[in-house]
Design a protein that fits this description.
Helix content: 40-55%
Bound molecules: nicotinamide-adenine-dinucleotide
Radius of gyration: 18 Å
Strand order of the largest sheet: 3-2-1-4-5-6-7
Strand content: 5-15%
Length: 272
């Protein structure tokens, strides 16, 4: 790998597995030290398996294999004090902070009238407030470093267009898109860039368990809407490493004039 992130330190949430793990390994392989946070325990509402402390330990092992350092914390992004503590420990270990990847999120397929008050609240709390907490926990450290930096909010194709049968998820990911744009305006004067990334379907544990059956079931209530997510490219879905390549670019100086942008890595699925 290029070494284009040599000397940088990145704070990543949802790093135990899936895309978060891929971000940690990719950024480390380009030279960054990593502060990795994950709940690594039972997730509310979801129809797929939850991540475990062993998953987070495996991410640490993979990062260490690249030769870079990693500090991990089993923390819920809904816990701002816990996130601040994790960032503080990481900055004490590595001496600085340059980048934040707010990646932790949950996804629940439900028709609008199946969404309970608890389910709506949990999706918004994790996907929106958790993302906000992640930024708040680290942004001042980046600003205080005086070197500028890069903040990447992981939204979704559902942050650019509706994802049928996920009103709460679509609302939450549109909120993340708006959050990135608004933060980009305020952080610009510190040379801190803020962008949102919009994956289409990605092959991660989020798509496992009962998720496929859950999606089939809700789409059966209105099969016409199945077409809404069709990709242009033949592969149909991305791998976590494809999203990590974009995140790595956004953190690097190669993207030094990219801010307030919505970067879709969705095989074209949001184009119509
Ligand atoms: N997989 C997809 O098809 C897809 C598509 C578009 C966007 N996304 C988004 O990408 C991001 C990563 O998803 P993934 O596919 O890797 O899913 P995943 O479920 O495989 O991994 C998500 C990780 O986040 C952690 N997490 C969830 N809530 C947390 C919380 N409150 N505090 C701390 N950690 C928490 C989980 O424990 C898990 O390790 C999410 O924001 C998701 O909404 C996923």
């Amino acid at each position: 790998m290029s070494g284009r992130l040599n000397g940088k330190v990145a704070f990543i949430t949802g790093a135990a597995r899936g895309q978060g793990r891929a971000h940690a390994v990719r950024l480390a392989s380009e030279g960054a030290d990593i502060i990795a946070v994950d709940l690594a325990g039972p997730l509310p509402q979801v129809q797929y398996e939850s991540a475990t402390p062993d998953d987070l330990a495996e991410t640490a092992r993979l990062v260490e294999q690249t030769g870079r350092g990693i500090v991990t914390a089993q923390t819920d992004t809904r816990d701002l004090d816990g996130l601040r503590k994790a960032v503080q420990e990481g900055v004490e270990t590595f001496g600085r902070l340059d980048a934040i990847v707010a990646n932790a999120g949950i996804c629940v397929p439900e028709t609008w009238d199946e969404i309970t008050p608890e389910s709506f609240r949990d999706v918004m709390d994790i996907n929106v407030t958790g993302t906000w907490n992640t930024v708040v926990a680290g942004a001042q450290q980046i600003i205080d470093g005086g070197r500028g930096g890069s903040i990447v909010l992981i939204s979704s194709a559902a942050g650019l267009k509706p994802q049928p049968f996920m009103v709460h998820y679509t609302a939450s990911k549109h909120a993340v898109t708006g959050m990135a744009r608004a933060l980009a305006a305020e952080f610009g004067k510190h040379s801190v860039r803020v962008n949102s990334v919009h994956p289409g379907a990605v092959d991660t544990p989020m798509g496992g368990g009962d998720m496929v059956n859950g999606l089939r079931r809700v789409f059966a209530t209105n099969p016409q809407l199945t077409q809404m997510n069709a990709p242009f490219l033949p592969e149909g879905h991305a791998e976590p490493e494809d999203i990590a390549a974009t995140v790595s670019w956004l953190i690097s100086d190669d993207a030094r004039f990219v801010t307030g942008a919505q970067i879709a890595v969705d095989l074209g699925s949001t184009q119509y």
